[in-house]
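Q: Could you predict the 3D structure of Malonyl CoA-acyl carrier protein transacylase?
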Amino acid sequence: MSAKQLEQAAQATKTAFLFPGQGSQKVGMLAEFAEQFSGVQETFAEASEAIGYDLWHIAQSGEGLNQTENTQPVLLTASIALWRVWLELGGVAPKYLAGHSLGEYSALVAANSMTLADAVKLVNLRGKLMQTAVPEGEGAMAAILGLDDAKVIELCKIASQSGQGSVDAANYNAQGQVVIAGSVALVQEVMAQAKEQSGKAIALPVSVPSHCSLMKPAAEQFAQALEQTAIQMPSIPVLQNVNAAIATDVAQLRQALTAQLYQSVQWTKTMQYLQAQGIQYVAECGPGTVLVNLAKRLPNIEKAFPIDTQSRMEDALNAILVAEGKIA
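A: Sure. Here are the predicted structure tokens for Malonyl CoA-acyl carrier protein transacylase:
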């Protein structure tokens, strides 16, 4: 579907597509789809050629899959392969796209804002820069549950005043669910304080503290690569992580992608925006169900569909076509 056709088809729907970020990867992802749709292997071949190594092998074998520089291009490619299958099957073109962290790049590729080849190169570099910005073992992330945003921000601010590094609210995922990121000792301190405040704290199995001030050096280098990458305005509006808003020009797109490395993911506000625009149906275009499970908690979202297996995609495709009045 051309950019113009996508833009026209998307206007009359109440559907949004959500693209997951790092942590949704699974060994063997999309194997079932690859047996039925040649485009899946072709999409991975396209991305692999751009990046110089076999992403499909990593996805299926799991070798190096959890290394950030590999995880990001593999997940991006998997999401775009599913997007292409969805369109091939006649699925509804969504009115809005949004991606969580890395998923913002998937959304931009789906919206014809950048090519898959350019995007996989960018996220591969992004992963390498993130890994080198904070030596392994010095950064951490944790989910804080049951406290409001203001309290989590306060705890991070108090901990950071110790002068032993920094810790920030990294992902506002939902009401009462905030992920923090920063120096190991300070993340542990906030976790302990959160528990004292009757909240819950869960350490996340990551080696890179994303979306926090420790990533500023990586962002400065990444901005140079972004400037050299061809980007155009999306054919379907893409909500940006840093402000839950839609860019009005390409300069804003580049700026938001750079800032995304060290600023918080505003996912709660993103979903609130979609609901305010009358979105009733969402589909998670990637492996897993993280974003679908968050969306199911929202009052105005009637249905949230994972599409990571053939049966799930077929269910979502038919249910949305019926709900949108495209078929009886």
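Q: Anything worth pointing out?
A: The beta strands are 15-19, 96-99, 139-145, 167-174, 177-183, 200-203, 238-239, 281-284, 303-306.
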